[in-house]
Amino acid sequence: MGQIGKPLEGVYVRLGELSGNYHVRNKQMAELILGGDCVSQGYINLPDKADNFYTDGGIRWFHTGDAVIMHQDGSCELIDHKSDIIKLENGKCVPLGKLESIYRMSEYVDNIYLHGNEGGKFLVSILIPDKDYISGLALSFGLSITSFSQIYTELTIKTAVADLIAKHAKSCKLSAHEIPAAVMLVDHEWTIGSGLLTTNHQLKRSLVHEKYEAEIAFLYEELSKSQNNNDTKREITVIAGE
Protein backbone atom coordinates (compact mmCIF):
# COMPACT_ATOMS: atom_id res chain seq x y z
CA MET A 1 0.00 0.00 0.00
CA GLY A 2 1.19 3.56 -0.69
CA GLN A 3 2.63 5.45 -3.64
CA ILE A 4 2.98 3.36 -6.79
CA GLY A 5 4.14 6.19 -9.07
CA LYS A 6 3.09 7.19 -12.56
CA PRO A 7 2.15 4.83 -15.40
CA LEU A 8 5.03 3.61 -17.56
CA GLU A 9 5.21 4.51 -21.23
CA GLY A 10 2.61 2.56 -23.18
CA VAL A 11 0.43 1.90 -20.15
CA TYR A 12 -2.99 3.54 -20.08
CA VAL A 13 -5.03 4.25 -16.97
CA ARG A 14 -8.74 4.54 -16.37
CA LEU A 15 -10.46 5.12 -13.06
CA GLY A 16 -13.54 3.02 -12.39
CA GLU A 17 -16.30 4.06 -10.03
CA LEU A 18 -16.49 2.37 -6.65
CA SER A 19 -19.93 1.72 -5.24
CA GLY A 20 -20.34 3.55 -1.95
CA ASN A 21 -18.67 6.85 -2.95
CA TYR A 22 -15.58 6.13 -0.89
CA HIS A 23 -13.23 8.91 0.20
CA VAL A 24 -10.01 8.99 2.20
CA ARG A 25 -8.42 12.23 3.40
CA ASN A 26 -11.25 14.00 1.53
CA LYS A 27 -10.07 12.51 -1.77
CA GLN A 28 -12.19 10.33 -4.02
CA MET A 29 -11.10 6.72 -4.36
CA ALA A 30 -11.53 4.83 -7.62
CA GLU A 31 -10.70 1.42 -9.04
CA LEU A 32 -7.48 1.29 -11.04
CA ILE A 33 -8.04 -0.02 -14.57
CA LEU A 34 -4.93 -0.61 -16.69
CA GLY A 35 -4.74 -0.78 -20.48
CA GLY A 36 -2.18 -1.45 -23.20
CA ASP A 37 -0.30 -4.20 -24.99
CA CYS A 38 1.09 -5.28 -21.60
CA VAL A 39 -2.37 -6.54 -20.58
CA SER A 40 -2.82 -10.26 -21.16
CA GLN A 41 -5.77 -11.94 -22.82
CA GLY A 42 -6.92 -13.24 -19.43
CA TYR A 43 -6.14 -15.70 -16.66
CA ILE A 44 -5.20 -19.27 -17.55
CA ASN A 45 -7.89 -21.79 -16.55
CA LEU A 46 -9.93 -19.16 -14.69
CA PRO A 47 -12.93 -18.49 -16.93
CA ASP A 48 -14.85 -16.95 -14.00
CA LYS A 49 -12.32 -14.08 -14.05
CA ALA A 50 -12.93 -13.26 -17.71
CA ASP A 51 -15.03 -10.19 -16.86
CA ASN A 52 -11.91 -8.52 -15.43
CA PHE A 53 -10.63 -8.12 -19.00
CA TYR A 54 -12.20 -6.26 -21.89
CA THR A 55 -11.25 -4.49 -25.11
CA ASP A 56 -12.25 -0.91 -25.92
CA GLY A 57 -10.92 1.36 -28.63
CA GLY A 58 -8.54 -1.35 -29.78
CA ILE A 59 -6.90 -1.47 -26.34
CA ARG A 60 -7.03 -4.36 -23.88
CA TRP A 61 -8.07 -3.29 -20.37
CA PHE A 62 -7.83 -4.98 -17.00
CA HIS A 63 -9.83 -4.31 -13.82
CA THR A 64 -7.16 -4.59 -11.10
CA GLY A 65 -9.63 -4.60 -8.22
CA ASP A 66 -7.42 -2.10 -6.40
CA ALA A 67 -8.71 1.16 -4.94
CA VAL A 68 -6.45 4.12 -5.60
CA ILE A 69 -6.25 7.88 -5.36
CA MET A 70 -5.00 9.72 -8.45
CA HIS A 71 -2.91 12.76 -7.61
CA GLN A 72 -2.62 15.94 -9.66
CA ASP A 73 0.86 14.99 -10.91
CA GLY A 74 -0.55 11.81 -12.46
CA SER A 75 0.83 9.46 -9.83
CA CYS A 76 -1.29 6.84 -8.09
CA GLU A 77 -1.55 5.97 -4.43
CA LEU A 78 -2.69 2.43 -3.68
CA ILE A 79 -5.15 2.32 -0.76
CA ASP A 80 -6.29 -1.32 -0.65
CA HIS A 81 -8.18 -3.98 -2.57
CA LYS A 82 -11.63 -2.56 -3.21
CA SER A 83 -13.24 -5.65 -1.65
CA ASP A 84 -11.40 -4.93 1.62
CA ILE A 85 -12.70 -1.37 2.09
CA ILE A 86 -15.79 -0.66 4.18
CA LYS A 87 -17.61 2.47 5.27
CA LEU A 88 -18.60 2.71 8.93
CA GLU A 89 -21.69 4.31 10.43
CA ASN A 90 -19.78 7.57 10.90
CA GLY A 91 -19.02 7.72 7.16
CA LYS A 92 -15.34 6.94 7.63
CA CYS A 93 -13.79 4.56 5.10
CA VAL A 94 -11.63 1.78 6.51
CA PRO A 95 -9.09 -0.11 4.35
CA LEU A 96 -9.02 -3.37 6.32
CA GLY A 97 -6.13 -5.02 4.46
CA LYS A 98 -3.95 -1.93 4.78
CA LEU A 99 -4.66 -1.69 8.51
CA GLU A 100 -3.80 -5.36 8.98
CA SER A 101 -0.39 -4.76 7.42
CA ILE A 102 0.16 -1.84 9.81
CA TYR A 103 -0.68 -3.93 12.88
CA ARG A 104 1.53 -6.79 11.63
CA MET A 105 4.53 -4.48 11.87
CA SER A 106 4.24 -4.62 15.66
CA GLU A 107 6.54 -7.01 17.49
CA TYR A 108 3.67 -8.50 19.52
CA VAL A 109 1.67 -9.58 16.43
CA ASP A 110 2.26 -12.79 14.51
CA ASN A 111 -0.86 -12.31 12.38
CA ILE A 112 -4.15 -10.45 12.55
CA TYR A 113 -7.52 -10.36 10.84
CA LEU A 114 -9.70 -7.24 11.06
CA HIS A 115 -13.43 -7.31 10.48
CA GLY A 116 -15.97 -4.57 10.10
CA ASN A 117 -19.55 -4.48 8.89
CA GLU A 118 -20.60 -2.01 6.23
CA GLY A 119 -22.40 0.74 8.10
CA GLY A 120 -21.33 -0.69 11.47
CA LYS A 121 -19.86 1.17 14.43
CA PHE A 122 -16.68 -0.73 15.28
CA LEU A 123 -13.96 -3.00 14.04
CA VAL A 124 -13.13 -6.28 15.76
CA SER A 125 -10.15 -8.55 15.25
CA ILE A 126 -8.82 -12.06 15.58
CA LEU A 127 -5.22 -11.82 16.75
CA ILE A 128 -2.45 -14.40 16.83
CA PRO A 129 0.14 -12.96 19.22
CA ASP A 130 3.85 -13.49 18.74
CA LYS A 131 4.60 -16.33 21.15
CA ASP A 132 8.14 -15.21 21.97
CA TYR A 133 6.89 -11.76 22.86
CA ILE A 134 4.02 -13.13 24.97
CA SER A 135 6.40 -15.54 26.72
CA GLY A 136 8.62 -12.64 27.74
CA LEU A 137 5.60 -10.64 28.82
CA ALA A 138 4.31 -13.50 30.95
CA LEU A 139 7.69 -13.95 32.64
CA SER A 140 7.85 -10.23 33.42
CA PHE A 141 4.54 -10.63 35.25
CA GLY A 142 5.74 -13.74 37.08
CA LEU A 143 3.31 -16.00 35.24
CA SER A 144 4.08 -19.62 34.40
CA ILE A 145 3.01 -20.84 30.97
CA THR A 146 1.24 -24.18 30.81
CA SER A 147 -0.27 -23.30 27.41
CA PHE A 148 -0.76 -20.15 25.41
CA SER A 149 -4.53 -20.63 25.46
CA GLN A 150 -4.27 -20.51 29.25
CA ILE A 151 -1.94 -17.50 29.37
CA TYR A 152 -4.32 -15.51 27.13
CA THR A 153 -6.96 -15.76 29.86
CA GLU A 154 -4.77 -13.87 32.35
CA LEU A 155 -6.07 -10.37 33.02
CA THR A 156 -2.56 -8.89 33.08
CA ILE A 157 -1.83 -10.30 29.62
CA LYS A 158 -5.14 -9.09 28.17
CA THR A 159 -4.63 -5.64 29.67
CA ALA A 160 -1.08 -5.50 28.32
CA VAL A 161 -2.20 -6.51 24.82
CA ALA A 162 -4.91 -3.83 24.83
CA ASP A 163 -2.27 -1.28 25.83
CA LEU A 164 0.11 -2.48 23.12
CA ILE A 165 -2.58 -2.17 20.45
CA ALA A 166 -3.46 1.36 21.57
CA LYS A 167 0.19 2.44 21.66
CA HIS A 168 0.99 0.97 18.26
CA ALA A 169 -2.08 2.63 16.74
CA LYS A 170 -1.04 5.96 18.22
CA SER A 171 2.55 5.62 16.99
CA CYS A 172 1.22 4.90 13.47
CA LYS A 173 -1.15 7.89 13.74
CA LEU A 174 -4.26 5.77 13.27
CA SER A 175 -7.66 7.27 13.98
CA ALA A 176 -10.01 5.92 16.65
CA HIS A 177 -12.21 4.21 14.08
CA GLU A 178 -9.16 2.30 12.78
CA ILE A 179 -8.55 0.62 16.16
CA PRO A 180 -10.45 -2.62 16.88
CA ALA A 181 -12.91 -2.21 19.75
CA ALA A 182 -12.71 -5.92 20.60
CA VAL A 183 -9.90 -8.43 20.06
CA MET A 184 -9.84 -12.20 20.45
CA LEU A 185 -6.48 -13.85 21.15
CA VAL A 186 -6.16 -17.31 19.58
CA ASP A 187 -3.46 -19.96 19.83
CA HIS A 188 -3.62 -20.93 16.17
CA GLU A 189 -1.39 -20.86 13.10
CA TRP A 190 -2.39 -19.48 9.73
CA THR A 191 -0.25 -21.14 7.09
CA ILE A 192 -0.20 -21.95 3.41
CA GLY A 193 -0.86 -25.58 4.36
CA SER A 194 -3.97 -24.64 6.35
CA GLY A 195 -5.31 -22.82 3.30
CA LEU A 196 -5.55 -19.46 5.07
CA LEU A 197 -2.50 -17.89 3.39
CA THR A 198 -1.64 -17.51 -0.28
CA THR A 199 1.69 -18.74 -1.62
CA ASN A 200 3.12 -15.24 -1.05
CA HIS A 201 1.82 -15.32 2.55
CA GLN A 202 -1.09 -12.95 2.01
CA LEU A 203 -4.15 -13.51 4.20
CA LYS A 204 -7.11 -15.17 2.48
CA ARG A 205 -9.51 -12.86 4.24
CA SER A 206 -12.75 -14.52 3.11
CA LEU A 207 -11.60 -17.94 4.35
CA VAL A 208 -10.38 -16.53 7.67
CA HIS A 209 -13.75 -14.86 8.13
CA GLU A 210 -15.52 -18.13 7.38
CA LYS A 211 -13.37 -19.98 9.93
CA TYR A 212 -13.96 -17.41 12.69
CA GLU A 213 -17.51 -16.32 11.90
CA ALA A 214 -18.84 -17.47 15.29
CA GLU A 215 -15.99 -15.77 17.17
CA ILE A 216 -16.58 -12.51 15.30
CA ALA A 217 -20.28 -12.64 16.17
CA PHE A 218 -19.33 -13.24 19.82
CA LEU A 219 -17.07 -10.18 19.86
CA TYR A 220 -19.89 -7.99 18.59
CA GLU A 221 -22.23 -9.46 21.20
CA GLU A 222 -19.76 -8.50 23.93
CA LEU A 223 -19.53 -4.98 22.55
CA SER A 224 -23.32 -4.77 22.45
CA LYS A 225 -23.50 -5.76 26.13
CA SER A 226 -21.09 -3.01 27.13
CA GLN A 227 -23.13 -0.47 25.17
CA ASN A 228 -26.33 -1.65 26.84
CA ASN A 229 -24.62 -1.16 30.20
CA ASN A 230 -23.94 2.46 29.22
CA ASP A 231 -20.21 1.80 29.07
CA THR A 232 -19.14 4.83 27.05
CA LYS A 233 -15.40 4.32 27.45
CA ARG A 234 -13.56 3.37 24.26
CA GLU A 235 -11.20 0.93 25.88
CA ILE A 236 -10.18 -2.13 23.86
CA THR A 237 -11.90 -5.33 24.96
CA VAL A 238 -9.53 -8.32 24.82
CA ILE A 239 -10.95 -11.86 25.01
CA ALA A 240 -9.19 -15.21 25.07
CA GLY A 241 -10.33 -17.60 22.36
CA GLU A 242 -10.43 -21.36 22.60
Features:
242 residues, alpha+beta, Luciferase, domain 3, GMP Synthetase, Chain A, domain 3, 2 domains, four-stranded mixed beta sheet, 26% helix, elongated
Unreliable runs: none
CATH architecture group name of the largest domain: 2-Layer Sandwich
How many DSSP E strands? 14
Helix content: 25-40%
Radius of gyration equals 21 Å
Count, helices: 6
Distance between the termini: 33 Å
* Nearest-integer average pLDDT: 89
Structural class: alpha+beta
Short structural description:
The protein contains 6 helices and 14 strands.
Describe, in plain words, how this protein is organized in 3D.
This protein is α+β, with helices and mostly antiparallel strands. It has two domains: 2-81, Roll (Luciferase, domain 3), CATH 2.30.38; 88-240, ANL, C-terminal domain (GMP Synthetase, Chain A, domain 3), CATH 3.30.300. Helices cover 26% and strands 29% of the residues. It is built from six helices and 14 strands. It has helices at residues 96-104, 131-140, 148-151, 155-171, 205-211, 213-228; strands spanning 2-5, 12-16, 23-24, 27-28, 30-35, 53-56, 59-70, 76-81, 85-87, 93-95, 109-116, 123-129, 182-185, 237-240. The radius of gyration is 21 Å and the shape is elongated. The mean pLDDT is 89.
